[in-house]
Amino acid sequence: MGTVDRMDWQPFAAMNLLRNPFGELTREDRVRAAVVDVADCIDRLQQPQTALQFIADCGRGKTTHLLSIAAQAPAAAYVYLPEDERCPPIPHGQPLLIDEAQRLPWLVRRRAFARGGALVLGTHVDLTGPLRRAGYRVWTYHVGQDLTAERLAQMLNRRIQLAQLRSGPIPQISDAEAADWMARHGSDIRAIEFDLYERFQQQIGVG
Q: Within 10 A of 128 (CB to CB), how many other CB atoms are there?
């Protein structure tokens, strides 16, 4: 009797997957899964007293942009500001990346902006005013407004590829399916990924 590869006992092995591709990702895998071009951002951050702000509601990709920039800047420091919790210490970095920057307490924000150096902010509100008062030249990106079904399909399929078990076919999201998801959730990628997580769980009889 032949032996069975232990990986074939994994719940998603029948789909040639190691895991549910829409589960929580590590920071490194989030960067690997990103479908963003931050080359112009990196160039702009070479200019003195420059701030980039990525504005959007939750789930549109602000964090993905920040982490993608941080991955290309060895001296960068990234900090996430949790909701309804005490503000964590603001690190030093070049650039300094602050996720959910709208949660910065006024005095902490003033001190952080007064340091100088490059800033990258993920925020729900436009912080152009306080940034300019601190002497920054500001570049603003409205995340998610240019999302297309084709790009969404590429993003979702990148997640699936990261979970691939071995060479061979894996599930794919078509452009038409991506368009259907956008019809339900608009540009809320997080909501789409949550629904896809549940769908993949159902396919193995869990959930």
A: 15
117 in Cβ contact with 134 (< 8 Å):
no
130 half-sphere exposure, CB direction, 13 A CA radius: 19
Q: Please tell me the distance from the alpha carbon of residue 102 to that of residue 145, in angstroms, as a whole number.
A: 20
Token pair for 73: 């800047």
Beta bridge pairs of residue 97? 78, 120
Pseudo-torsion of CA 199, 59, 148, 23, nearest 10°? -30
Per-state percent for the chain, helix, strand, coil, to nearest 5: 45, 15, 45
Q: Which two tokens stand for residue 175?
A: 């452009």
Q: What's the pLDDT band for 205 if we cut at 50, 70, 90?
A: confident
Residue 63 structure tokens: 């964090």
Neighbours of 63 (CB within 10 A): 22
Find the mean pLDDT for residues 117-121.
97
Does residue 55 contact residue 128 with C-beta atoms inside 8 Å?
no
Q: pTM for the whole thing? A: 0.89
Radius of gyration of the chain (CA): 20
